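Dear Dr. K.,

Following up on our conversation at the group meeting, I've run the structure prediction for Quinolinate synthase from Nocardioides hwasunensis. I'm pasting the input sequence below exactly as I used it, so you can double-check it against your construct before we proceed with anything downstream. Let me know if the numbering doesn't match what you have in your notebook.
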Amino acid sequence: SDPDLVARAEAAKAALGDRVFVLGHHYQRDEVIQFADVTGDSFKLARDAAARPNAEFIVFCGVHFMAESADILTSTAQQVVLPDLAAGCSMADMARLRQVEDAWDAMADAGIQDAVVPVTYMNSSADIKAFCGRNGGVVCTSSNADVALEWAFDQRADVDGGAKILFLPDQHLGRNTAVLQMGIALDECVVWDPLQPGGGLTADELRKARMILWKGHCSVHGRFSEDVVDELRAKHPGINVLVHPECKHEVVLKADLVGSTEFIIKTIEAAEPGSVWAIGTELNLVKRLADAHPDKTIVFLDRNVCYCSTMNRIDLPHLVWALENLVAGTVVNQITVDPETEADALVALQRMLDLPG
Ligand code: 13P
Ligand code: SF4
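The predicted structure tokens came back this morning:
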């Protein structure tokens, strides 16, 4: 990275001292990660943000929904900064509150709403988390989705026919967790398409389903294919395929291991020297793992270069700009969630933080 910008970032952080706490998601660029006080997956960062009550400013190097969650989990006095406001998430954008409320109404019309517990992936806007908080639901991340689903099924265990889950907004995480970890059959999962009237489902299909999966996906993880898994297995006999649960079900079925970014890192750290790995997650993390483990062969599970373009919007110039403004007394790009949404979203986030394990 540009030595002048590195020196400016160092100076600004030194000037701010403990007043600032910089969080970096594992998908961030190296040039940004070097200035993170803590790195982690979405779950770890949510907990870390909540555990810094003395930092006046939380600079979130990640995407918008993560900064919103940090604002919800920190005190009103603390200010959360997202160095580039254009760092959104296409998956989070696939579930709008209005669409989710329409789906909820359709579930009432089908006579199943009392049996449904809404569960939203962390990768969703604050108003979707608030919807879950208001309606007896919970937030989950890729590191605790199984525990969250278990909790959700328990909430309505007494209703006739058992509980159902409305899983937002990532159909792949929902399906992978339900089928591979909860023993739910693939044909008990249906997909609600918000762009079709009635979600594209009949009332009868809704009644029979146990998992109602929102039709959302991650544009980065959705690219990994079964073909490349086959290709790499042919090229490197004995290769281990390690993927994130946002990948398609068919890809996860072909993989050896599946887990959150934190799980992927721990797995590679514990791997035998000389072992060969194909990793299906965001490229900044895969490259960093390959650099940190020269004794292991680590390849990307895609033929093409494929970064998360919105994660990558946070670069060193934006970080320096945000930090220097804080030094000068101006809070730029502050992320604030309105108090009503915040109160309801906190209920769903707190339920997640209180889950066992
Ligand atoms: P985790 O941080 O939960 O592994 O999720 C990955 C992701 O896509 C974040 O945007
Ligand atoms: Fe969203 Fe996927 Fe990027 Fe994560 S990797 S921020 S889910 S688009």
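Two things stood out to me. The pocket of iron/sulfur cluster (ligand 2) is lined by residues 27, 63, 89-91, 123, 218-220, 282, 308, 310-311 (CB under 6 Å). DSSP finds 15 helices and 13 strands in the chain.

Best regards,
J.T.
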